[in-house]
Model the fold of this input.
Amino acid sequence: MSYGGYKETRIIRWSIFISAFIFIGFMVILPLTTVFYFALKNGFTVYIQALTRPESISSIQLTLLVGATALTLNTIFGIAIAWAVSKFDFAYKRLLVALIDLPFTVSPVIAGMVFILLFGSDGFLGEWCINHDIKIVFSTTGIVLATTFVTLPFVARSLISLMTTQGREEEEAAVTLGADFMTTFWKVTLPSVKWALLYGMVLCFARAIGDFGAVSVVAGSMKSVTIEIFELYNEYLSSEAFALASVLTFVALVALGIKKSIEKFHSENGGKNEY
Amino acid sequence: MNRMKIAKRSALPAFGVTFGFGFFYMCLLILIPLAALAAKSIDGGYETFIEAAFSERALAAYKISFSASFFAAFVNAAFGFCIAWVLARYEFFGKNILDALVDMPFALPTAVAGIALTTLYSSNGLLGAPLETMGIKGAFSYFGIVVALIFVGVPFTVRTLVPAIKELPKEIEEAASTLGAKGYQVFWKVIIPTIWIAWLSGFVLSFARAVGEYGSVVFIAGNLPFQTEIAPLIIVTKLEQYEYIESAAIAVVMLFVSLIFLVLTDFLGKKLGNAGVNR
Done:
């Protein structure tokens, strides 16, 4: 153990240490262990059976589809808005950047309900949707919209903070030498922000597949993995619920591993933690 | 030449298309839907709005949501300081693992956290059983809500405090203790004045996150009106009963609170000079 600064007394040092570990032990390690313990409690065969139920498989398919769509949309948005914000000055820029963060502070429940108020049968555009035979609420489209709302900031924020600090000189040089926008972006900007981009995308996808609040409001009878977990647990089918939960936990652990290694090995990201 | 009116002259291309698309996307996904929410909430007139937004049941739910979030943020601020101190000051075996575990509540889906915590804290659970002999009901109670909200807020204080503790001028601490300052004096006179903004910022972030939390709480809360019903849950319940105006009214109150938090965290972030802060 090495430490700089002033030297705490040994008692204080150890109490800080022990508090930190007990807290993480009870609040994080124990819940994680619980997931895997109850998933595998009745043996591996039961575990596999729980995961290969048709309901489980269709929920995983829906969640992957929704996650991939939300990720694609928010990546395109993130790149576009980061370019505009970091390479140009314009009025009310700060307000715009603050608005990007709004989905983080809004309750996911609200993220889901706004689309019911817009596109539900009673909603502002509800009649229009019925007349044109467009189904948004209680369909995959609605789930995608709600998930995209919730995960909107991740890629944009990760890119904006890095691209702003990198300045504009390199891109300006490329453009002066005759490169067009696409060439400049692919050859100059992207190589220097690729890890930040990946970082944002990993967080976006992890959050997208794990969303419950927003999705549960708009899903109707459709079932994402998290809704399936909720229903299984309420029907006291806890080993099935935990089996599905273990898959999400595993994905979360992988995402966290990627996040940590980017922070560690690609400090261009500034070692920042983006929420 | 329209872009020159909005943006200052720049040698770089594609402002119009990137800004246009980004702004259009945000309008479509965030601004128009939230405007629809606000419009819906006053659809039945001002009095209906006030009645719905501040009904007794809604007021009870705000009280539960805000007080539980406050306790949770407070616990996280206290233990978050210990974890941040350990991560910033010491080298030890397993430091990377501890560092990664701190972020786990952020990566783990809230529904998963919900069933895990409920199982642990229910009356026959690993932690619920001993708590029950002490007379504390773990799951399906106010206590359970606080536990779930502590879980979702773990990363925030740690992440704002680690950079702040790393930047503490060690010379000053050393000077203070060389000159005979006691440990608690160094803590109150040197450490706290330097890191309090970061600490407060972490507290506010974790409070804000807890207020909107739904996924993990619905499992563990019991969801009894006036006792263990949080505000986001009323929104969902009213929505399922097609009471859209009531639901929207409560959502608008919560949205307003979110906006206050957004301004507050933005202000604190600016005060911290954006250096090493997650804003």
Observations:
- Chain A has a mean pLDDT of 88.
